[in-house]
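Batch job 17 of 40 flagged for manual review because the log was empty.
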Amino acid sequence: MDSVDTIFALSSGAPPAAIAVMRISGPRAFDAVKALAGTVPQARKASLRKLHDPENGSLLDEALVLVFPGPATATGEDLAELHLHGGRAVVRGVENALAHIQGLRRAEAGEFTRRAFANGRIDLNEAEGLADLLAAETEWQRRSAAAMAGGAFSAQVEQWREALLRLAAMLEAELDFSDEDDVGEQDYSNISNGCIELHDAISGHLNYPAAEKLRDGLRVVLAGPPNSGKSTLLNALVSREAAIVSDIAGTTRDLIEVPVSLEGIPFLFTDTAGLRDESGDVIELIGMERAERAMAEADMLLWLGPQGDAPKHPALIQIEAKADLPDHVRKSDAIIVSARTGQGMPELVAFLVKHARDMLPPPDAFALNQRQRHLLRDTALFLSHASRAHDPLIMAEELRQARLALDALTGRASTEDMLDALFGRFCIGK
């Protein structure tokens, strides 16, 4: 990719549609508008123009044309939008005409957003939030991604960075000017205390729920012995026949994972092989091993077996299933349900939703992904080292490393491979 190129792409949904928005960004954006529309309209004012093919003069469309002078644009460059009629032939004709204008080329996936990042319009955290926003399928995901894309976390990081720079400046003053009369003697304990305060503030955010739970869904695993009602309960929870139901032990041999949204919260329900002490079936044994691993990794574990056989789990939920049958297993402190009759199902769903809300960030609050948590953890570690350092030179180096970690968090320091991976998640017109 050459950043001096002018790029174009359809930034709205695939045609046919009522309107198709063609976005053009780069130094020749206005030249492209002039080539198609004859003149460049007034900045930031929608103007109706007839678009003609520059090569043969044929009419392409009658469209609304808008131009936005950089750097105060989404990409930080001169930007133009052609609001076309959304037919396939219209879009294809305009794309072909733009492709034949010197200095223009079709945009790559995520290239508009990447230019916004490169030109300082957004930072890396906001770009990741935007990627999650585009991928959001539930209301909870949308609201959290919107908070990240809107700069809530970036604003917090910038406050930490400013505090870190103040601590570094205090230390540099002591190192460089301790003999000067106009600079008072610095107290290292004040700098150490400042490092501790900043460490504690950053560490507090490491306890925030992980973005991966919000993106992939909270993993709810159904476990128990064969014929305990796991598959029937799974089907009832996801409102479809996702798992085969049979009285034959060992019917479910592998994990069955079904994503579903309940009250705007993403869940990943997992049915498992029935657990029993003995089995002569090699495949069933493999299924039970996978069931054990799934139970260990579960955010919530629904146990449908006897109460005394329940595994240890921090979010164990006892289920008294098959309540419609007179001989169903009785358990204390359990949610009583019958997936066949619907008894107790609303209560179970409400219970799961309530627990999920405690595991996820509050609505409109951001969640941290693995990259962000790793860099925050590094920052906190360097601050901890700095607070305990007795040598001011070592303290200065630890503060420098902490600043570099924060800079990597916002993208001030980043690698091309990492950027390629991120912006490759976007569609062509974004």
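Reviewer: the log was empty due to a logging misconfiguration, but the result itself is present. The radius of gyration is 29 Å. Unflagging and moving on to job 18.
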